[in-house]
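Dear Dr. H.,

I hope your travels went smoothly. While you were away I took the liberty of generating a structure for the chain from your last submission, since the lab meeting agenda had it listed for discussion. I wanted you to have the full record in hand beforehand rather than looking at slides cold. The sequence, exactly as received, is reproduced here:
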Amino acid sequence: AAATYQRASVAGAAPGGRRGAVETAGYHVGLGLIHLQWNNLDPAEHHLIRAVDLVSGALTVEADVVTDSYVYLARLQQARGHPAAARATLAEFAGLARQRSFFSLLLDRGEAEQARLALRLLDLPAAMGWAEGRGLGAETPDYRCEDQHLTLARVLLAHERLSSKDSSVAE
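The corresponding predicted structure, in token form, is as follows:
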């Protein structure tokens, strides 16, 4: 994937190329995600901040690109040990998504990311609060809700582990 982005960048910079094709939020969020997955946090941060800058000022941009930009930037901030910044990024996304009337599944994805962050911060009550209000379960699989289902699985596993630990201590 990184090689494809590199070829696109070279093609865009060539004479007669479309420079604007690589200076898009989608381009930057894609490269940012690749670097985030590789744990190359500095280039990931550069691309994700650029993506958020591009989507926040644009009148027309795909809602899923906006969602990805904010969600992955929040994950990067968490990876850097800045949970308050991650929370603020997700809150900014929620406001923007509501203002622009995003599809409900994208709003749900942002909320699932907030629960994931709560879980990483060992705030199981907040994560469980999200899980209990979702109405998701094994009986309602939907590929469009993959992030939500994965977060739900993490929350339920953490809850079960804590319950098991509590019951063994009581015995």
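Two observations you may find useful: The first helix runs from residue 2 to 13. Helices lie at 2-13, 25-37, 41-57, 63-79, 83-99, 104-120, 124-132, 146-170.

With kind regards,
E. W.
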